[in-house]
Amino acid sequence: MKVRGMLLTGSLLFCTANSALADNACDDEGRGHHGKKTYILATGRRDPRVYAVDLQKALDPASQNTPNAIVSRSKVALDRLDGRPLGDSANIAISEDGETAIVVNHHGSVDNAEFTQHGGRGNLAEMSIKRMVDPCWDNTAKALIRHVDSGWFGAVGIILLPDLYIMGAAESHLTEDGGNRIMFIDRKTGSLRGMAELRQGTGPNCPVPADFPVPFVSPHGPPTPAPLLSPDAGWGCFPDTNGLALGQGSDGKSYLFGANGGTDDVSVIDLESALTGNKTPEVARIPTQIGPWGIAASPSGKIIAAANRESQKVAFEGNTVSFIDVDKARVNDPGAEVARVLVGTSDPAVQTRPFIPSFTPDGKYLVVPCFRSNNVSIVEVAKALAHDPSYEVARIPLTRLADVDATVRPARPKGSAVTSDGKYAVISAGPRTTFEPSGYVYVLDLDTRTVVGTVTGIGNDPYGLAVTRQ
Fold it and tell me: What are the backbone angles phi and psi of residue 370, rounded to the nearest 5°?
């Protein structure tokens, strides 16, 4: 994407600083830094870079409402041969040793300005965090180690096992609908080791199953019907899995949970069975209010929180979070959704579009960005599970400054993460615009439940983010 006339004063300062930095020679090891720092890594989405933000600088009053806390921006793919930036960074995870960021390119190495539909083949960008936080490599692909093909289309969810990446596919080839795959990819070689195939939906949303066998049998054509773009009355047969979470049963087994935007439910997958090569290891479906997108497991792995974002079938957005008991879900107990709580509003008729939730490290609270209501809901988990009406202990509004065209746009929060000490939540936000970078990262103090940091100039329509210490 080309950067088009969006430079405010803070952005000018940032670009000037980086121009000065570029004048100084950098060796292959970059500059490095002394002492550990905490960084926020935020995906740029339509601006195909990951932004590294120094948390302490983000908290500095002098940095508020500026991009000054950004230390570097890393491209998630090499530029196209004609110089166009490529990539679609939508989600991110950090390796166990803290050295590598695994970035999910939702539609792979595409030009977002040209590829305006859905159904691109996803990939993973493995990136060196040491280089991502080094100003020496700002606005380059020097942090990129390699790309790994996702094996399917519309990649979203990512789970790390010691030897495997687990990825969810929300789409089919060149369509937003038709996704029913969970992929298992070898972390050492990048080889696709297997796929779990999820069954089609049932009930009034899918009265006639689509023509697509599960498990797939060749020869057979692509999924039909498969609507091109949502909302569409044809939705409801394919799960179109978004986020993934890993739960722990009291039987000692792990269960994979998938947020199904297409069928308005959550899949429960016997991970042990999937890892033996079973193509249909799904053991249950848990209905939710509407199509979930973000999903998270509590630190104990016993509770799953699914944010009910929107319908793919009709123009309706959700306003609740579903809490799912792993033990009840693994046996397909009808009461597995043990609580469903309103977030971002007190009015059940108001659509808030909750997005990507995060538990605090102690599991006491759930942080929920609400895209449509432009706020962040802090839910006390124990109260929610006890059906205590005072479960929402804070609702924090988010605002933006006027953009370069003088328009004051809504905040539109999406992603969330919590620092390892549980003190801060970080939130990615910003609507898609015609200029870039236009997104924000907000830092929330979870003790005072206030916004204590606002970083501008973060990508365009940013989604997932993560916190790392380097």
Answer: -115, 105
- What are the tokens at 438? 């236009």
User: Rounded to 5 degrees, what are φ and ψ at 374?
Assistant: 55, 45
What are the chain's domains? Answer: 9-23+39-211+226-469 (2.130.10.10)
Residue in 397, 428, 399 with CA at minimum distance from that of residue 414: 428
Whether residue 162 is preceded by a cis peptide bond, meaning omega within 30 degrees of 0, is no
CB atoms within 10 A of CB 337: 21
Per-residue pLDDT of the chain (470 residues; tens, 9 = 90+): 333 333 333 333 344 344 334 444 576 667 655 579 999 999 999 999 999 999 999 999 999 999 999 999 999 999 999 999 999 999 999 999 999 999 999 999 999 999 999 999 999 999 999 999 999 999 999 999 999 999 999 999 999 999 999 999 999 999 999 999 999 999 999 999 999 999 999 888 898 889 999 999 999 999 988 899 999 999 999 999 999 999 999 999 999 999 999 999 999 999 999 999 999 999 999 999 999 999 999 999 999 999 999 999 999 999 999 999 999 999 999 999 999 999 999 999 999 999 999 999 999 999 999 999 999 999 999 999 999 999 999 999 999 999 989 999 999 999 999 999 999 999 999 999 999 899 999 999 999 999 999 999 999 999 999 999 99
- Pairing mode of beta strands 317-325, 375-380: unpaired
Distance CA 307, CA 229 (A): 21
User: DSSP labels for 211-271?
Assistant: B--SS--SS--S-BS--SSSS-TT-SSS--EEEEEEEE-TTS-EEEEEEETTTTEEEEEEH
pTM value? Answer: 0.93
Task: Starting at the earlier edge strand, list the strands of the sheet with 49-54.
Answer: 70-75, 49-54, 38-43, 465-469
